[in-house]
Specification:
This protein is mainly beta. The protein has helices at 34-42, 208-220, and strands at 8-11, 14-17, 24-28, 52-56, 73-77, 92-95, 111-114, 130-133, 146-152, 166-171, 187-190, 201-204, 233-237. Strand 1 and strand 2 (14-17) form a beta hairpin.
């Protein structure tokens, strides 16, 4: 594996080659192998002093910044391909562009902030953390979510939150067909129109405790005062498909 050549930055008035304490690690993927970048990021530990990383020229590459397990900041300057920031744990990752399929797939904790649009299956199987998408998200957003919180400021595509087990999906815009199909206990909040609900997903009353929950989540995402939580509608499981019953055969 080749050693990454880090940029030189000015730290406290003194030029300092990175990596180094209190500095920024800048990695240009036009000159560095993605495998080498990911190996360096995955080797970081909780007590690392290499806490800020900037990735240049991602050029739509796949699986950038995956498997990080340290409280570091990673800024990706440009569009990314499939499965960016997958399996994230503890890191704060900002994507200054659009993201391909499966951004934040199976993330465990931390923050992933997509400043553009996200393709299908954003946050798939996520166990925790917050995925914030400034633009739209494609089909199957939050598929099989298992505790992740997802906030989408635009619209989402069809079959979003399919088989959602737990966690919360908040959508400022519209939702496509079959929202929450075969949902378990994930909690869905949609401000716009819903094209149709999937099997066993129903609209539920938005009570004061849900408004408080929604406000707290939006506050965490930095969006608490940009929308009125009373404008959202709440959706969840009717709990009729937990166990097979012959009368419900047509709903499967």
């Amino acid at each position: 594996m080749s050693k990454i050549n880090f940029a030189t930055v000015r730290v406290g008035g003194v030029n300092s080659a990175l990596p180094g304490a209190h500095g920024m690690n800048e990695v240009d993927l036009a000159a560095t192998q993605l495998r080498d970048l990911n190996a360096q990021l995955q080797a970081l530990r909780n007590d690392t002093n290499e806490t800020f990383w900037r990735v240049l020229n991602p050029a739509g590459g796949h699986a950038i910044a995956v498997g990080i397990d340290a409280p570091v900041d990673v800024e990706i300057s440009g569009h990314v391909g499939y499965f960016c920031a997958g399996m994230n744990k503890n890191a704060r990752i900002v994507i200054d562009g659009n993201a391909g399929q499966g951004v934040g797939e199976n993330m465990m904790s931390g923050l992933i902030h997509v400043k553009g649009d996200a393709s299908q299956s954003a946050g798939a199987t996520g166990h925790g953390g917050l995925l914030l998408i400034e633009g739209n998200a494609g089909a199957r957003c939050g598929i099989s979510m298992k505790g992740i919180d997802i906030v989408v400021k635009g619209e989402i595509g069809h079959l979003s939150a399919f088989m959602g087990q737990t966690g919360r999906l908040v959508v400022f815009g519209d939702a496509g067909d079959a929202l929450g199909d075969s949902i378990y206990e994930a909690r869905l909040y949609v401000r716009g129109k819903v094209a149709s609900l999937g099997a066993d997903c129903i609209e539920k009353e938005l009570r004061d405790e849900h408004r408080a929950e929604l406000f707290a989540l939006l506050e965490q995402a930095g969006e608490a005062h940009t929308v009125d939580v009373s404008e959202f509608r709440r959706y969840g499981s009717a709990r009729k498909l937990y166990n097979f019953h012959i009368d419900n055969a047509g709903a499967y």
